[in-house]
Amino acid sequence: MQSILAVDDSKSIRQMVAFTLKCAGYDVIEAEDGADALQKAKGRTVNLVLTDQNMPNLDGISLVKNLRSMPSYATTPILILTTESSDEMKSKGREAGATGWLVKPFDPNRLVEIVKKVIR
Amino acid sequence: MNSSSISSVAAPESSVIGSVAPQLRLAQSELTRVQSIIDDASSQLMTSFDVLREGIVQRSDNWVGTPEGQAICTAMTALQFQDMVGQLMSGVSNRIHVAAQLLDSPEAVGAPDGSSTAAGFPREVVAQKDITVGDIELF
Predict the structure, then answer these.
(1) Which of A46, A84, B42, B69 is a good FRET partner for B32, with 20 to 30 A between their CA atoms?
(2) For chain B, how many structural domains are there in total?
(3) For residues A109 and A17, is the Cβ–Cβ distance under 8 A?
(4) Which residues of B100-112 are buried (b: 16+ CB within 10 A; e: fewer)?
(5) Do A101 and B136 touch (CB under 8 A)?
(6) A60-69, B7-16, B99-108: which has the highest mean pLDDT?
(7) What pLDDT sits at residue B106?
């Protein structure tokens, strides 16, 4: 089963993301912020990372930079799911190594479509 | 304008400014209470929604294509209001906090280029005006 690391400081968003992806057949590992995600990413590999941007301790773009510096996450698809929609932030995400930028709120069916498209 | 008229104008202004900071702090406290109510209500909504959702999912393998399945997807999109509203309210609360601090310490306003006042205010992180599904961009 392919696994996805879902990162968001909002419990309700994590619940909805996890439900959506589990229904689509994925194993979901939840993390409540970037620092938690980094800890959970170490020692395991996942097939995709889906992360919020604005979180305490470590934000999404910093998480992307940290993951990209790890050989096992050099090519793992990383999607940023956030309320932020400015071109400036999207550029920062792209430069950090993110695979895509999804603006909240998300539609569950559309999220699964995108995940299927980019997951490895 | 003579000196007495100047002082009669200046005094009320000083009094008004002195009363604004406490009102801003009260507004910040009220925002915190609103946030707490929204979080509590959202948590109860999510718990109830999870029970209803599980019931529908267990009744049918093909629930996604049913009207109930579509209703679940729509509800899941709408329930994300808590995250968006929470971030907006946090931003408003931080702006009020900075404004109250500036009223307490007017010297902070006097930076030559004004950057010290602007720098203290939070960045806008939520641009959405409704619960419409957001854009997707693959790089």
Answers:
(1) A84
(2) 1
(3) no
(4) bebbeeeeeeeee
(5) yes
(6) A60-69
(7) 60
pLDDT tens-place string over residues B67-126: 888 888 888 898 889 889 998 998 899 888 888 888 877 665 443 344 344 557 888 888
**Mutation target among A7, A10, A11, A12 for the B interface, most CBs of B within 10 A:** A12
Give the number of domains in chain A. 1
A111 is in which domain, residue-wise? 3-118
Of the candidates B43, B87, B136, which has its C-beta nearest A102's C-beta? B136
Cross-chain Cβ contact A90/B81 below 8 Å: no
Distance between CA atoms of A83 and B84, rounded to whole angstroms?
7
Q: Could you tell me if residue B126 is inside a domain?
A: no
More confident position, B41 or B117:
B41
Cis preceding-peptide flag for A105 (omega within 30 of 0): yes
- Assess if residue B40 is contained within a domain: yes
Give the C-alpha separation, A107 to A92, whole Å. 24
B53 contacts: CB under 8 Å, gap ≥ 6? A19, B72
pLDDT at B19: 81
Q: What is the pLDDT of residue B4?
A: 46
B28 contacts: CB under 8 Å, gap ≥ 6: B93, B96, B97, B100
* CA–CA dist B74, B70 (Å, integer): 6
* Percent of chain A clearing pLDDT 90 (strictly above): 83
Domain assignment present for residue B138? The answer is no
- What is the rounded distance in angstroms from the CA atom of residue A47 to the CA atom of residue A34? 17
Q: Does residue B8 surpass a pLDDT of 70?
A: no
What's A59's domain CATH number?
3.40.50.2300
